[in-house]
Amino acid sequence: MSKLANKVALVTGGSRGIGAAIAKRLAADGASVAITYAKDASAASAVVKAIEVSGGKAIAIQADAADAGAAKDAVEKTVATFGRLDVLVNNAGTAIPKPFEEATLEEMDRVLDINIRGVFATTQTALKHMTDGSRIIMIGSAVGERAVAPGLVPYAATKGAVKMFTQALSREVGSRGITVNNVQPGPIDTDLNPASGDWAVPQKAATALNRYGHVEEIAAMVAFIAGPESSYITGANLTVDGGMNA
Ligand code: NDP
Fold it and tell me: What Gene3D superfamilies does the record point to (predicted)?
């Protein structure tokens, strides 16, 4: 029996990178999966196709996480399509790397709106539908706990907020048997943070394993937290960073 058989998962920002790997992994573990995306419809439908070809069920929903109304509608559409919601993965996130003194308020608002406001709106709507034993999983960041490099001040601040959101929310929904956890990746090779180029050199060097991580290595942790064996883990920040914060 698949670990997530008869479960329904929503992965925000599931068309590329870490979110796409999470969506595919949860589907492989038996869940029906809804993904959201902001711009790239063809990447989103490629993820849906890949899941369907492997025998799973998936839908893609266009919903910019910065738009709270769209984020809420995505939850409702997931429930309307699959009938329930058991696992929410708040993965959509962005960074606009630059020195803090050069960051505009508009850029800071964009990072806040996607990384925090979207997470609040999505989670609040999801909780209306979630039953006992459901799972809320954030994709925070290792820099939410330790700022290893300059250039990520607003981003690190939002990921620190994601960390405390996780801990605080776990206290409110624990009585319903709902767990809330924060997976904190280190440098993972994606479009957002490619493993090649100048920006990658110090990040790779900062890890104990001296390499970037793969998206599947984050998906594996998310799958564990989504599954039945993690039932006593909540309010936790689970860092998957090749030892960057060691
Ligand atoms: P990518 O930029 O590679 O992929 C982002 C995904 O999110 C895409 O599917 C994209 O879809 C979607 N997306 C982007 N903006 C929005 C939005 N406003 N609303 C809805 N969906 C959106 O990012 P990663 O996979 O690298 O990052 C995923 C998460 O992991 C983020 O929260 C990030 O902060 C976190 N993280 C990443 C690390 C890394 O090293 N890569 C390290 C630590 C944390 P579309 O193309 O349609 O915009």
Answer: NAD(P)-binding Rossmann-like Domain
Q: Hey, what amino acid is at 65?
A: A
Q: What are phi and psi of 85, to 5 degrees?
A: -145, 120
How does pLDDT run across 109-168, given as a tens digit for each residue? 999 999 999 999 999 999 999 999 999 999 999 999 999 989 999 999 999 999 999 999
Radius of gyration of the chain (CA): 17
- pTM of full prediction above 0.85: yes
Write the single-letter amino acid at 149: A
State the closest ligand 1 atom to the C-alpha of 215, by its place in the atom list counted from 1. Answer: 25
Tens-place pLDDT, residues 71-121: 999 999 999 999 999 999 999 999 999 999 999 999 999 999 999 999 999
Tokens of 38: 């902001």
Q: Residue 35's beta-bridge partner residues? A: 11, 60
Question: Catalytic residues, which ones?
Answer: 155
- Nearest one of 101, 117, 102, 18 to 64, comparing CA atoms: 117
Provide residues with CB under 6 Å of ligand 1: 12-19, 36-40, 43, 64-66, 91-94, 114, 139, 141, 185, 187-188, 190-193
Q: Where are the beta strands (DSSP E) in 115-242?
A: 135-139, 179-185, 237-240
Architecture of the structural domain at 8-188+214-240: 3-Layer(aba) Sandwich (3.40)
Nearest CA to ligand 1 atom 10: 13
